[in-house]
Amino acid sequence: MATLLRSKLSNVATSVSNKSQAKVSGMFARMGFQAATDEEAVGFAHCDDLDFEHRQGLQMDILKTEGEPCGDEGAEPPVEGDIHYQRGGGAPLPPSGSKDQALGAGGEFGGHDKPKITAWEAGWNVTNAIQGMFVLGLPYAILHGGYLGLFLIIFAAVVCCYTGKILIACLYEENEDGEVVRVRDSYVAIANACCAPRFPTLGGRVVNVAQIIELVMTCILYVVVSGNLMYNSFPGLPVSQKSWSIIATAVLLPCAFLKNLKAVSKFSLLCTLAHFVINILVIAYCLSRARDWAWEKVKFYIDVKKFPISIGIIVFSYTSQIFLPSLEGNMQQPSEFHCMMNWTHIAACVLKGLFALVAYLTWADETKEVITDNLPGSIRAVVNIFLVAKALLSYPLPFFAAVEVLEKSLFQEGSRAFFPACYGGDGRLKSWGLTLRCALVVFTLLMAIYVPHFALLMGLTGSLTGAGLCFLLPSLFHLRLLWRKLLWHQVFFDVAIFVIGGICSVSGFVHSLEGLIEAYRTNAED
């Protein structure tokens, strides 16, 4: 009996000694020294596993503590965090009644009961965004850039298609089994991952601010152009441009009740059809004057002062990166995303290039900021009505995305939320959530009334947030998160896009701001 007891004590002591030696050797190995034996390496790995299990147990205890009821009544409910805890450090999913599950990006992060969209519906959304009202300013870009303006329309399409793809690539990582899984759900999550661990929330805050500015400015521009077009279409009516903007905003108030992208996709389909009708009408009129086209007016030199504003207009017309993570996560087949991006941007490039060139050839040096102002009175009224319909149908998508960003930033359930969640346990929108949405619609109206400069606002926004969200940040995030997996030409593309985007952003912002100040001075003198 004594011999057996001594044998067990000896085995325990030997095991403890081996584990201690293995852990010490492992520490030296992490510091750069070679491990002594294979046995010690195995022991070190085993200690790592024990350490991970201990940390995981602590994390589970914390999650269970947070999920326990305050009283002692009833049995302990199952904790959702226990199921969704990830070894990679992923946070637990939000509770079933939260906004993330109602409007999340799908996949691992979104709810499974929300409606999914097909690749065609996603394509309609992207087409609606990159072939929106801002195509009206492209002939003005050709006026100040000539053939270089046409080249930039093509170049911007290629770059924005590429940055959209690499942005989605930043949502995925390989797990321990070598499978590519979606570990992030938004632009903000990508930014936070890039700034972690030193500044884990800084990147998300920067992206949130840029997203909100971009989306709200897009909504404002739709209201501005709606009021302007209706006023110019019916100049004989005793209705001012501000009154038309108020009427347009009243029509847009039902947007406050949108709950998912399924309804937005239907609006986008109608909007795209209206866009084709507009293009056909304008191009048909231009073709009727093909004999008078001024090919000699298309120049190779540029207006150094005004062309940077045109760069902002072109970039802003291709902005779609801000809601691509949400669209990709809501697709029934996310694998079709790349194909969808290709055909939408090819179609946008061809249509924008032809529209800008044909319109400029028709009016040459008389080309105005909004090309429909060059049309004769009878045709202008018909085209402007379609344009107003397109603007009103285009409004819901950026509005829905802006509301989603605000709700996730300020009203999301959790300890870091500034305000209570906008959705109840049954998934219904609460009163303050509806108030937030209505207030956002009214804010776009007020800005449209007091800052009614369409082209300058579009150039300013495109140079500031458009270039940042479409060029600078996607290339920077791609380099930061996937550096070890990138080939040399991918690194070259990312660096080149970052440098070119930075130059265009600074120059366009400065010249747009100067133009805006000059416009206010002119209005003050008048």
What does this structure look like?
The chain has helices at residues 2-30, 38-67, 80-84, 99-103, 119-130, 138-145, 147-169, 187-195, 202-233, 241-252, 261-288, 307-317, 324-329, 337-363, 377-394, 396-410, 431-450, 454-481, 488-525; strands spanning 172-174, 180-182. The protein is mainly α and 526 residues long. Strand 1 and strand 2 (180-182) form a beta hairpin. Belongs to the amino acid/polyamine transporter 2 family. It is found in: Cytoplasmic vesicle membrane; Presynapse. InterPro entries: AA_transpt_TM.
Give short descriptive properties of this protein.
526 residues, mainly alpha, two-stranded antiparallel sheet, 19 helices, 2 strands, 68% helix, globular, synapse, Vesicular inhibitory amino acid transporter, cell projection
Question: Any chance you could write out the topology, listing elements then pairs?
Answer:
Layout: H1 2-30, H2 38-67, H3 80-84, H4 99-103, H5 119-130, H6 138-145, H7 147-169, E1 172-174, E2 180-182, H8 187-195, H9 202-233, H10 241-252, H11 261-288, H12 307-317, H13 324-329, H14 337-363, H15 377-394, H16 396-410, H17 431-450, H18 454-481, H19 488-525
Antiparallel strand pairs: 1-2
Helix pairs in contact: 1-2, 5-11, 5-14, 6-7, 6-12, 6-14, 7-12, 7-14, 7-18, 8-9, 8-18, 9-10, 9-15, 9-16, 9-17, 9-18, 10-17, 11-14, 11-15, 12-18, 12-19, 18-19
GO biological process, one term: gamma-aminobutyric acid import
GO molecular function, one term: glycine:proton antiporter activity
Catalytic activity: 4-aminobutanoate(out) + n H(+)(in) = 4-aminobutanoate(in) + n H(+)(out); beta-alanine(out) + n H(+)(in) = beta-alanine(in) + n H(+)(out); glycine(out) + n H(+)(in) = glycine(in) + n H(+)(out)
